[in-house]
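Me: Here is a favour to ask of a fellow structure person. Could you put it straight underneath, so I can go through it closely?

Assistant:
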Amino acid sequence: MQVKAPLAVSRFWLTVCVLIAVCLPAQLSVACETPETFKFTKIDLEVLERSNQTDLQFERKGLVYTDEEAAAYIENIGLKMVPETTPENVKWRFRILRDSELNAFALPNGSIYVDSGLLATIRNEAQLAAVLGHEITHVVNRHGYLENRSFRKKTAAINILATIGGTAGAAGGIGGAAASTVMRAGLPGLLYATMFGYSRELEHEADMYGLRAMARNNYPPIQMAGVFEQLRSGYEVQLTEEARGLYVNHPLLGDRIAYVRGEVDKLPLSGEPIVKSDEYSREMIGVLRHDVTLEILTGRARTAVGVAQRLIEINPESSEDAFLQGEAYRALGGRTPRPRPEEVTGNAKNKTRRQLVELTPLEYEAALRATPEGKEAWQANVKLAERAYLRALTLDPQNARAVRGMARLYDEDGRATEAMEGYRKYLRMAPNAMDAYQIRKRAEDMEKAAASAIPVPASH
């Protein structure tokens, strides 16, 4: 025993030393290989194939937004930002992902995705160029492949650590759990990194390349700071420590704004500054409209109101946009368009988190509207939504969706007679609508209840 014990200890510490070596941070492994010296391995080719399969999955699931004009516009800006020489095994594609998150990511095969939520948040072409330039760096500098190699080493180390001493806890808490969850889901390290952010050093590297590419194309580099400022001034109450998404977490927004501002004077333009706010807004109208609906569906009605307001500013005479504004205000329920000061306190956030876990969305909405503040907010939102729907119908009396929206508003507000009239009018205007059966059923239930004097619960 006196001989074996030291030997066992020596083997343990030898293993730990090996693990420390293979678990070096991703940025150190990146330093060992540059874009010029990068050589594809079998592992990298597997990553390339997974990237291609991911593209196909996004297409098959209908996650790629297919507005041809918007897609062409983004591709045109993206191709300005790429280097003259295309890296091996890269085919540049610039796509819009139907997702309300404030995110963008690049697959190692050259496919760059910008979430519709992010496109609805940024304000001009120069800010779009900043986003695309950042993502292009991840492709050109092979960050996806290098991060995947590092991820594989870390995963191997975690698996070994989990067996040392026969204790599951040795894997390292959250880190071990996250890695095992990713592996069980079959998600390669590169996709986890590309969608949720690389190390701080790689994100800084991508920002720096993006700034230089912006200056080269006469996009004012200060507009990259503008992107981060837009993200920092979001509409929703932030219930997590940091919002999910590449542009929020890596590194913190305040740090990025500071170092971008520090680089601006070092990057003079060679021509007239290109910003193009109006052109960007016109090109993104379809994306903005799409995003209003997405924000409502994902429970982010405050953001929906903000995006709808942008649409009204771009297109004040659009019946469609007035209708969407009505939908956004109706979806607010018992919330104010902007968070009240008391909502952003620690205690209020903790209470909201508990309620979201314990209650269904409908129960949570009912609880919200039962409070004095919720009742007051709902009454204000009803007036704003009604005004928007009426504006939509003034601009286009045949806008059946505005009629339906106003009927639902009255239904949710307990105004049964007005709601039934609105539902019947909608069915006359759009008898073959996809939701005609549901609307007809709701109207019939309300009519039966009215005839028997039995109150029907308000629709939500």
